[in-house]
Design brief:
The protein has about 375 residues and is mainly α. It has 2 domains: about 140 residues, no CATH class; about 180 residues. Helices cover about 85% and strands about 0% of the residues. Helix 6 crosses helix 7 and helix 9 packs antiparallel against helix 10. The termini are far apart. The C terminus is likely disordered.
Length: about 375
């Protein structure tokens, strides 16, 4: 009997692993179709409080509230995208005309310093490597690829907003259906609804914190005298949605420009400024706000960013935490895999009360009572 039981458990484990591999392969193969749908769902979840506000306080009809919500989202994304596109094009030209010659001059100075100190071998290898990265055609090609990706992003954003319009329009129906299922199914659907509410809280808080991060990054770069401070603020805002890695990546370009144009002191100020911004907002304020509803270990968050970045690229990195939360919920609801949910849990997270935001999946318990 123990042998048969062990064989059964082993077979179940192999089937689980095989299913996981098939699912991952399917997610990668279908990312062109899946990503707009996933992003539209998340945009609808985070935008629903705007729709609810327009209906509740301004007495808008549902269709008009949805229309204004989509217009606001489109305006914000459109303005940020347009400004970023224009600034990126200007940056590309500035890199070719100004930064590359200046960097080459700095490299020659470094080479002379190394030769004076009898480090000819290091000088030769180092300058060869640096000049290979400062090749103007490569930089122009890289910038052109960024522009092409930006154009694709604009087309994808339009599709996302169209899907989001339908999702927001169906919000009340989904709400009623969730109530009916909860009455019949009980705990399972309640956990799912709670997970959606938690994702909504996460996205709203993350957006606010990212906006403040971008504003502070803009002020820092502007005060130090780094070129294109508005672009670095927008990049800091966008990359702050990627846990840990995003803030590091966002700090590299302005720090290099500060080093190139102003000097080591300015570069150090920029690096320390970004570090201070992310220490205060990312490691102090944000965890206190998110600690109540997110019990995911930090190491799991980092691994999820790497994994979903591999599966779905940058968008996967942005959505890594919400997706991981839903996976954790699925594991908790499974009898056989509940141990995996406990393994990635972080039960000792500090608990803090956060402002309640109207949820797209509100069960309206008060109305029933």
């Amino acid at each position: 009997m123990p042998t048969k039981h062990t064989q059964k458990n082993g077979l179940k484990a192999l089937l689980t692993i095989a299913s996981g591999i098939v699912i991952i392969a399917g997610l990668q193969a279908g990312k062109g179709m899946l990503l707009p749908i996933v992003l539209a769902c998340f945009f609808a979840i985070v935008s629903y409080p705007v729709t609810n506000f327009l209906k509740k306080f301004l007495k808008f009809p549902h269709w008009l509230a949805v229309f204004f919500t989509v217009v606001v989202d489109f305006a914000v994304l459109g303005v940020l995208g347009f400004i970023g596109y224009i600034l990126a094009a200007d940056l590309s030209k500035t890199i070719t005309d100004k930064y590359v010659p200046l960097a080459q001059h700095k490299v020659e100075e470094l080479k002379g310093f190394l030769v004076q100190n009898n480090w000819e071998n290091i000088s030769s290898q180092l300058t060869t490597d640096i000049f290979s990265y400062l090749d103007a055609p490569k930089i122009v090609s890289f910038s052109t690829n960024i522009m092409a990706q930006a154009a694709t992003f604009i087309a994808t954003t339009t599709l996302i907003l169209i899907l989001m319009t339908f999702f927001l329009s169906e919000g009340p129906k989904f709400n009623k259906n969730a109530n009916r299922i909860a009455d019949e199914q009980g705990e399972g659907i309640l956990k799912f609804i709670k997970a959606l509410s938690n994702i909504q809280q996460y996205l709203i808080i993350k957006t606010l914190v990212s906006g403040l991060t971008g504003l502070l990054a803009y002020i820092l770069c502007k005060s130090v005298g780094v070129d294109f401070p508005l672009l670095w603020g927008i990049i800091a805002f966008a990359f702050n949605f990627i846990p840990t890695f995003g803030s590091i990546i966002a700090a590299i370009p302005p720090a290099l420009i500060a080093l190139l144009l102003i000097g080591p002191t300015a570069c150090l100020i920029v690096v320390l400024g970004y570090l201070a911004i992310n220490m205060v907002l990312g490691n102090c304020i944000e965890p206190k706000l998110l600690g109540k509803q997110f019990g995911i270990a930090t190491s799991v968050v980092l691994l999820s960013v790497i994994f979903w970045g591999w599966v779905w690229g940058p968008i996967g990195m942005l959505m890594a935490v919400p997706i991981t939360l839903l996976i954790k919920l699925g594991l908790e609801c499974s009898t056989d895999l509940k141990w995996a949910a406990m393994l990635i849990d972080s039960p000792n997270e500090p608990k803090f009360d956060i402002p309640k935001v109207p949820s797209i999946v509100d069960l309206n318990k008060n109305k029933k009572q």
